[in-house]
Structure prediction request, 332 residues.
Amino acid sequence: MAVNVQRTDLYVGMFLVATVALVAIALIATSGWGVDRYDVFVRTDNAQDVAVDTKIYMQGLEVGRVAAIAPRPVGTAGRLEFILRLSLVDRFPDGTPLRLPRGTAAEVTSGLLPGNSQLQLTVQSDSGGTLAPGDTIGMQRGTSPLEAFGALARDLKGTIEHALVSATGTMDMVRTLADSLRLATGTARRLLIATQPGAERILNSVSANLDRLQVMLDSTNTRTGLTFQQVDATLAQSQKLVTSIDSLVRLMTAMGGENRPEIAQMMVNFRNISAELGYVLEELSRRPLRFISGVKIPDSLRFVDHPRPPAHPDSAARPAAPAPDTARRPRP
Prediction:
């Protein structure tokens, strides 16, 4: 029985020792023991939002933590200066050495919740060379989310106030325009009321005149139809007459080619009459109402002096007819 108790105690002790060893190993692994590190110092006049064990990031990757914060007086006015000791890893997990350029600076970024600040390492300029252990760099403070929200709220407030002022001005202009439209509408209504009786009388008069004009046009259409039929018949007969006259003129022109002045002059007259009659018929065919108003013969068709036909070639050689002997002969 005693042996079993001793064996149980042994198992419990071994379990406790293993647990303590695992916890120690976990603490060593999480605390960075056994990792090569080097220190870089930061000088600043304000250590707000920075505490020991604050994480240090470079482009989103954790590269160390704040190991210590040491204040020291500056001047005689009671001002303090803070020296932050940054514990940076010497190498990345893959063995690549971490070397910071000399233009590196630290920047404090605050989170939404208190105690959630971070220290960001940014390379502002590459002045050549890298930081050696124990070198000192400067620190600047970034805008906190609360300050950003405050600035955004102030900007939004100014924008809203400006929009309200603009909307108020627009409403005033709309109100003024509505008043002007109301006045213009009242004036137009009074003008319409004043001119309505006269406009109605004018429209009634125009309607009566249009009715009379319609009646006159209807009667004119009936009469004009008959007149136009007569004019068409007259034009057809006149065209036939002109054709006959043209044939007669050609015939008489052929007959008047033998040095007959009277016939030639008559041919000229017939030709002038034919031209004038053709012009009258053409004008009547274009505008039948000229039958009532008359057609004016242009001067170019009046007194046309046509050249006389040349003398027959045989007339010069032909001897003149002997004059008749009118003297009385003595009786035998």
